[in-house]
Structure formats: structure tokens, C-alpha cells
Amino acid sequence: MTDSSRRVDFVVVSNRLPVDHVVDDDGTERWQPSPGGLVTALSPVMATNDGAWVGWPGRADLDLDEFDADGLHLVPVRLSSDEVDRYYEGFSNDTLWPLYHDVIAPPHYHREWWEAYVAVNERFAAAAASIAAEGATVWVQDYQLQLVPRMLREARPDLTIGFFNHIPFPPYGIYSQLPWRTQIVEGLLGADVVGFQRPADARNFQSAVRRLTTATTSQTAIRLPDGRRLVAKAYPISIDSASYEQLARRPDIRERARQIREDLGNPKVVMLGVDRLDYTKGIGHRLKAFGELLAEGRVSVEDVTLVQVATPSRERVDAYRQLRDEIELTVGRINGDYGTISHQAISYLHHGFPREEMVALCLAADVMLVTALRDGMNLVAKEYVAVRHDGDGVLVLSEFTGAADELKTSLRVNPHDIDGLKDAIVQAIEMPQAERRRRMRAMRKRVLEFDVAYWSSTFLRELAASKNP
Ligand code: GDG
């Protein structure tokens, strides 16, 4: 039911609404919640504050009224298929994404993409402005919507506006490539609090502010020429740790973990990688290291198996199609060269799985490999830690993830250093149990205490406190 006069005190704005459109076998269409960490963290805040969520429902050219699903009030923003191409796949995923991840892939700059980005950001800002009550709090999420804070402030100076960037913010030398670098920084300066994953991201943003605007900065504070102040600092995101641990304790999921090991031929060591198939995740570097270890006889397929889940992602963007070809060629070569009838080197799975299966995989894995070349946080690393209530398991973690700032007793690696990565994999395989437990204990303490509820409550508390007089 539409209630276009409805106004709420708390609004979350993100590119995607937390629901997926599904068509059942009998042809019935419905919206199914896609519960991620963000929904879990924000649902209680939504419920106590009378909240709404503004976002794109994930299908182009769809005219939809506001609706309720699973206790959330959802405000759909329409995108034409042309806008999906230009704003989402183009400017968001083929300009900003590679630029903000240290230009691992070349960013493409197209003026039509930028124009679509501006137009779509305006639409999101207008939708948020029309649902927000007088004096409401609006929390804008991520790099697709960096112009929204300023647009919203201009339309509605009464609002308290937060922004959180889920991906890195690059050093100025890289950021300055962006033809629209000033507009984006000014867009973000519309917020009262701009949150980042790592202190380094916040510092990079402040340096862009100093280079491109007349605002001044002092530690985490930014002062604008008109006297308004805002805060730019790190709020490292986390997961709903307790729910992962609960799943990991379920007898059926533990049984499934045992089954997975058996199906893999009960190797001595199961290693696991779980990533969206994305060039930032360093999947190729991981495979190269593993392939060389097999070639050199430092590990054998009878003893060690790698399970690589590569969830399909952004398949209409060229760089992602190429990446898939490269990865699948490498997996095929390694399996062809080193596999036996009874033992595969790599079990490669190019599909998504239910969360229960992910948890079973984490329980089954002696070693988790997170080798991202650049990653805002990397939740998979935290999920592995939350699942390992048995206190065992080794996390190999790239120092280029936000998670590496917190998970200091992981085996930290530079994934570009293939020899170093190979040594770390061997060290993980051979690590004595006492050392595994000692390292895991420290990481579990961190992940269980600083969960996603801590993240959202800290951000929202500081947002409330930032309100300018
Ligand atoms: C961005 C930033 C930041 C993956 N495949 C399946 C599945 N997943 C889940 C994982 C994890 C999530 O998706 C992926 O989160 P990551 O943090 O690893 O990476 P991005 O998707 O790149 O996320 C990142 C994050 O935003 C949050 O701020 O940490 O740095 O890039 O939760 O478990 N879940 C299920 N089936 C799958 O096949 N159920």
C-alpha cells in the first residue's frame, strides 16, 4: 500500500534496496528480503525510529510504489536501463570502483556516465528528501551516492546527514585523475559525518578536501568556509558475529562441514577462498601461488585441496568478463596439470550459495585465504573468524584489506609478493595447533566484541552528536 504522505525520522539510502525480486515456480512474483549485515544492523534502529529505506529495486524500468517487506518500509527509486548502464555499470563500477581500488584495473572516464551519475544521485536525494520528516536523520551508503549528501542538504537543511563509504578512498595522486574530483568532494562535504573503513581512507579524503576546496581540516574535523563543521573518520564495519557463531553450532551445519571434507576425499588440509569474482580480490595471485607450490612439490593434491567460491558479479562489465576467462583458464590448467582421478587441486564454484553452506565451508576449511589487492574491509575474513568457535583454523589475510588493521594475529601477506604468499600458505598448512589457537583466540575476541551493531550504533551516536548548533 502506498502512503505518499508518510514521513519518517530515520532514512537509509543505498544503491540497492535490501530485497530481491523473485518469481516462484507457479509464476507468482514477490519481493524476498536479501538480509545482509547492513539490514541486520539497521533493522532495530529502523523499528525504534520509524524508519524507511530508499534504493533501487534491482530491475530496470520498474515503476513501483512504496511498499513494506519484512518489517521494512521501502521506497523504490526507478532507474531506466540506460541509467543502469551509465550510472551503475559505467560510472559506479567501471570508473569509481577501479579508481578507488588503486587503479588495479584502468578506470574509464565518460562524460555521459557522469551526467547519468548526477541525474540518478538527484533522484535518490529527492526521494530521501520527500520521505524524511522535519529534523530526521538520513544515512547515505557508499560510492554510488557521493553527491547525495550535498544535494540533500541544499533541499533540506533541517536534516542530519551521515555518509559511509564501504570501499577505500584513494590517495590524492590517484584520486586526482577523476575529472569530477571537486564535485565529488563537495558532494560528500554536504554530510555531518563522513565515515570510512580505515583511518588511512579518512586521511586520504581530508587531503583531497585540502587540495580541492577552501575547507580546513584538523584531525578528524573539517571546517567549511561558512563555519559549518563536519567529521571525517574511520568506523570499521563488521558482521553480525553472534549469528554466524550460532549457525556454526547447528548440528546439521556441522554435519554438512564433515560431509564436505569427505566429498573432497578427506585431504589433510582444506583451504578456502570466498570472493565475489572481482579483480580487487587477488584470486589470480592466490591461484598462482598455489599452482607454484604444487609444481615445486611443496604441497601435493593428496594432502591439500583448495575450494574457491567465486560468486558471479558485474557480468556485463568487460573487465569482469575478462577476469572470469583468466581465472577459469588458470583453474583448468592447474587442475589439468596436477589433479588425479581421486583428487582435484581446486574445486572451483562459480555460483552463490546460501549462508548456511558458506558457514559449513568455513567450518570445513583449515585455512582461509583472503588475498585482496585492495579491499575496504573484507567481511569474509571476519565471518571465518566468527564461525570458528572451536578456536581452530588459520586466516591468511592481505595487508591491503581494512580487516588487516584489526585482525593483527592473522598471517598477514602482501599478495603481490608471490614467494611471500607461498611461504605464508605453507606456514598456515604446517602451523602447530597451539599457535593456531592462540592467533584465533585474539581475532575472535575482536570480531565478537566489535560487531555490526557496534559499528552502526557508534556511527549513529557520533552523527547525533555532530549536529551543528
Ligand atoms: C564491499 C567492500 C566491505 C559472497 N558470496 C556469497 C555470499 N557472500 C557474502 C560474504 C560477505 C559478502 O558477501 C561480501 O563482502 P566482502 O566484504 O567480502 O566484499 P564486497 O562484496 O566487495 O563488499 C568490502 C563490504 O562492502 C562491507 O562494507 O567489507 O571491502 O568491497 O558477507 O559472505 N553470501 C552468500 N552466498 C554467496 O555465494 N550467502
TrEMBL record:
Instruction: Tell me where on the tree of life, at the top rank, the source sits.
Output: Bacteria
Signal sequence span is: none
Q: Which GO terms describe its molecular function?
A: alpha,alpha-trehalose-phosphate synthase (UDP-forming) activity
Any one GO BP annotation for this protein: trehalose biosynthetic process
- The coiled-coil regions, if any, are none
Name one matching Pfam family.
Glyco_transf_20
The family annotation for this protein states: Belongs to the glycosyltransferase 20 family.
PANTHER family xref list: BCDNA.GH08860 (PTHR10788:SF106), TREHALOSE-6-PHOSPHATE SYNTHASE (PTHR10788)
Name of the molecule in the record: Trehalose 6-phosphate synthase
| Source organism of this protein record | Diaminobutyricimonas aerilata
